């Protein structure tokens, strides 16, 4: 496979792989502190090279201040972000969190358009685009999730829906802005049934093609595309060997320190 190294393809092409843990509505702020401390120790013990594979956690909003304090006090090389953001500037939006508030907490990233938000909260492509613009405006890198349901897959194939979802966002992304895309087939999330690396690669390549068409080759070459959906230590290697997959968005398996740490250290088990 062209461009693929023993370490996986992403780093060979200058995109630093990103392993991101989406905690969803799990772990309160005290549990978050203990988790991030243990994760940092586990990776340090294993001599993890944070420059070679970036690590990020996405705790609930109420944990973010505690995580910020810990990361900053102990100078931990772990990135963090929120799981959602308001499209609006501060004002009369009860229950919402402005991008500028997340920036104050030094969030590097924010997940936008996760399938649970699209399904359970009826988030539309327009809202996902508006939230993406708000994040970029506040200097936060949006991690935009796209993916097809089982029904979409049967009706339209794997790429059509994720492509349409991404194109709706690309229209609003200013040239030069950094963003990350997570391809997460909805049927693979939390089901224990991950896509095959080949399936995921095909969709990731199509998504990269759409970025190239809209924002140019440099943007396409520099944008990280993650796979998400039942990723665990046992299957991460297959995804990371793919030329267009630059990391993973991990749900359930990100809640176990040792399991998540093993996913982060996938280079130890790629190509061996
Ligand atoms: C997710 O919710 O983003 C996800 C990928 O979950 P899981 O890893 O549990 O499938």
Describe the structure.
It is a single chain. By secondary structure, the chain is an alpha/beta fold. The chain has one domain: TIM Barrel. It has helices spanning about 10, 30-45, 65-75, 100-105, 115-120, 125-135, 150-155, 160-170, 195-215, 215-220, 235-240, 255-265; strands spanning about 20, 55-60, 80, 110, 140-145, 180-185, 225-230, 245-250. An 8-stranded parallel beta barrel has the order 1-2-3-4-5-6-7-8, surrounded by 5 helices. Helix 2 (about 30-45) crosses helix 12 and helix 8 runs parallel beside helix 9 (about 195-215). The longest helix is centred in the C-terminal third of the chain and has 19 residues, at about 195-215. It is globular. The model is unreliable at about 1-10 (pLDDT under 50). The structure holds phosphoenolpyruvate (PEP). The site of phosphoenolpyruvate has 13 residues, from strand 8.
